[in-house]
User: What shape does this take?
Amino acid sequence: MLQPGQLLQQEPPAGAKPATGGKSEAAGAPGRPEALPAAALPSAAGYTAQDPFKAVIYDGTGVLSGYGLQQQLEVCGCVPEMSDERYVVLLFSLGSTLRDAEHLLQALRQISLEQEQSQSLGEQSQRFTKDSANYISTWNNFQEGTPFSEPIPFTLQPIMEEDTTEASIDKCVGLRSAEMVIPYPPGIPLVYAGEQISAAMISRIKLLRDEGARFHGVSDTSLQSLKIIRE
Assistant: This one.
């Protein structure tokens, strides 16, 4: 179970009266450590606890991206909550069992073994680093200082369904999107409804799609097509 190394001060229940003079009965209880205020723990400032049901993992060798590691886990029957270009988030629940944890560990061992076997056979693996050509991130929409987004005309008029159609993603350059394209995580739209679609934007979407990123807001989750506005 994941938890802070030190106890943090618990927030008093609603309606509780603040402590007045004298020692607290709990504070002097034998064998019970005193809770420390969050301000006394700079590294934990702003946090009262860690989620005991989530674990974040990544490939320390730098070979697998978060997307790649998630795909490998899913092949082994383990379905993570989410992933990005580096990390995979695992979610346990009250229904999770020791057998589930053992299954996960076995899957990770199998993935590690397969990587070692690939390297022993002389297969070259690209390391997944920010400096490598295969590094694709959903957390920034900039490349060499150039934004992917185009100016978006603002209107209070909704986009009517009869004014939209679907087009192959390879034929969307210069057209206006009728839907938002939102890679998740972090859930920040890459394309807004009404925005003109640039060639750089299409290239970005296809790279994220092929790497295994998940998208929200799109009618075609395979990202082979986009819903666009009829002109």
Residues 8-14, 21-33 have pLDDT under 50 and may be disordered.
